[in-house]
Amino acid sequence: MKKLLAMLLISVLMVSLFVGCSSNTSGSNPTDKPTQEPAGSSTGNDNPGDSSSAPEEQDNELYTFKMFANFTPAEQSEADKSFFAAVEKANNVKIELEVPPATNYAERLQIMMAGGDYPEVVLFPGERDKILLDAVENGVVIPINQYLENAPNLMQYTYNISWDSLKFKGDDQIYGVPRTSIARADGYIVRKDWLDNLGMTIPEGGAVTKDEFVEILRAFTEDDPDGNGIDDTYGFAANSDAEGNMGPILTWPFGLNGWQKADKGPYEYMNLQFSKEHDNFKKALEFTRDLWAKGYIDPDWPVTKRETAIERFKQGINGVIGEFSGWVAQYITDMTPIFPDVELTYITGVKDDNGKVEGGSFGTGFWGLWTITSSAEKPERIISVFDWMLSDEGWPTVNYGPEGVTYNVEDGKMVATDLYAKYSWGRAILRRNNDPAFFIPLSTSEEMKPKLEKWLSTCIEQAIFSKDRGYRPPAADDPVYIDYQKTMNQAISKIIVGERPVSDWDQILDEWYKNGGEAYIQQVNDFIKSVEGQ
Amino acid sequence: MKKRRPVTAGSVVFDIIIYGLLALIAACMLYPFLNVIAVSISDYSSYLKNPLRILPGKLDFSAFEYVFSSSLILSSYRNTIIITIGGTLISLTLTILTAYPLSKKHLKGKRAIMNLFIFSMLFSGGIIPSFYLIRSLKLLDTLWALILPGTISAYNIILMKNFFSSLPESLEEAAKIDGASDLYILRKIIIPLSTPIIATIGLFVCVGYWNSYFSAVLYIRDQQKWTLQLLLREIIMSANTQLLSSGGNLAEISKDAIPPQTIKYATLIVVVLPILCVYPFLQKYFVKGMMLGAVKG
């Protein structure tokens, strides 16, 4: 009996030891085990394109593929389930979704890539993502050119510049389907009731000059726009970025539109922020610094995140906020219970010195891309699903959800059902680049619709792309460069709050050039020339 | 009997300052709780009017209705309860069964075994190797992947072992003379005498399991197996996540995807409340256990 007990205790001890070692404080075991599976997984890269030669008759067979994607909110609604059911039915496919937590999407991507067990379709949040570039290099993400030949809708409704930015290896190979967003240069939501109280108006076209813009901010700060007799309002609702840095609140009116052809200086293409020959950035800094000094910008700016800035606008603390025009109706809904007479309007842009509004659109017309991995046996079927989504048949389903679920047609008009508000995953997959109606929800009031359409089309017209196409040169990964970039961002914040003079910018820029900036500019120039030359 | 010190004006002022300070600190601790509770039962416009409120505005329980109508909340609640209860029981059993023999002087190789445990406190395999291990054990996407890796902690074993060593040996000897087996002694004598340390370690482990979220990020694919903390993080951080994932493209920050503050706070209460209720009951053991475990090395 004693021996038996001793054996039992020893075995428990041994099990505990193993479990202890395998836990978060683990030791040696993990490194031995995995060799079998990753080895197998790496061989998955060998013949990604072979399946494209599959016999024609198999094309109509049910094809199942996994889709690794980032959707919010986390919970898939009934409307979204119906959407995927509609896509599966129309394309005779079965889509197995893997939707990791959005807050840890990057980590999950990394683990998935390291694990060697690749889903057929993977969403990458950005084209500069290091994990993506490695995956392309290792052959995990495959080129899709040959399949795009049979995808007329994808080709028609995607910006050319988006395709360009997915040619990672400098040749013609395209490594993903851009999740297109309609390129715009957004303007500002403004408290119209405050403007009315002060006897001010926004010009007919929706754009204002820099002086008019400043005058609005001044009046909102100093002239008691809400008429409560208390000096408790400010002009502009600004927010710091994810790292807590501040930046000029207006850049486009100062000609800062990303990478464009340079009119002078040693480089053919230049982002004027980095130009020693131009003082555009200094002027933009001076402009913002001046507004800050006069108190026209929310004093909480340095510690305000975007979410809080929106709240402070809705609380009636600030009267102007940079925002997408499509959200005006939502702002009104949120603010009406507090301010029953609230009215909002939209400044479509601030004019530059030539009286023109022109803005560098975000990135290259998309936000994330769908890649196909070497695990895909039938990449052509996956591309055809994406192509269907932008076809005349599929697009209304993507845009509004499945008919009969998210909307019904009554008297020739689409009427939203209760489930329409819960439909979001399907809308975050792909979209046509020429259909701004995408951003006007079915539930928008008839009164608001024409205004939204006008603001949206203006913002779309005034958008221009930065010629760097989101390219991340190797110089940007140099630790010295990364370090100095942080120093530079902090210096910009200090200039704005008045801790350093604007004239310091020349010295900061000189240092930036010495700390990798020169190589950065040269490499971006080489890239743009190589793409523009084609 | 001790003599009371005479009450002087100075001591009264001193007491007032001390109590005032303590009240201030207590208020600092309490305020966020009150604010979260008040906002969670107010409507969104009341929150906007005064985000710092400690009294509710217009009463509105729709945030809680929303929270409890979400199937993900219910499933993640269930998962967290399973891993917390299951993990704590397994962990305590293994820790007791490991620490008890190690507390015996006559165990051969005791020092070597202890060193192996201590070694595991200093080095870790890292995320990717741990992921490979869990995958090779076929535990991926199971709740076991969230329970097993955390069951044994070398620190807890040392605490437990020290406590067992501090118990008088004569008790066991007496039992042995009366014919009790080792297992009987453990069950009937050692464990009943060790409730403070068991409660302490139980609390450590329980709170650890309740709060764990990163294992779920790594090892769980099926949303129905998410834990509560993971879901909470997802809800609370959604605004930042959206902003980052949209690359500054304001149109792509879906308004539906960012829950209003009222819903965030209601979720917070739902998540924090159960473990908050457990804490006060175990608190006395917690302090006692810490002291006792540290008596003898």
Strand proportion of chain A, as a percent range, falls in 5-15%
Q: Can you tell me the number of structural domains of chain A?
A: 2
Main CATH class of the largest domain in chain B: Mainly Alpha
CATH architecture of the largest domain in chain A: 3-Layer(aba) Sandwich
Counting copies of identical and different chains, the oligomeric state is heterodimer
CATH architecture descriptor text of the largest domain in chain B: Orthogonal Bundle
Q: Greatest interface and its residue counts?
A: A-B, 81 and 80 residues
Largest sheet, strands/sense/barrel of chain B: none
User: Might you state the CATH topology name of the largest domain in chain A?
Assistant: D-Maltodextrin-Binding Protein, domain 2
Rg of chain A, rounded, reads 27 Å
In CATH terms, the superfamily of the largest domain in chain B is: MetI-like
**Number of structurally distinct domains of chain B:** 2
What would the CATH topology of the largest domain in chain B be? MetI-like fold
Q: What's the CATH H-level homologous superfamily of the largest domain in chain A?
A: Periplasmic binding protein-like II
Q: What is the CATH class designation of the largest domain in chain A?
A: Alpha Beta
Strand order of the largest sheet of chain A: 2-1-3-14-4
Structural class of chain A: alpha/beta
In sequence order, what are the helices and strands of chain B, one letter per element? HHHHHHHHHHHHHHH
Structural class of chain B: mainly alpha
What fraction of residues of chain B sit in β-strands? under 5%
Please give the largest β-sheet of chain A.
Answer: 5 strands, mixed
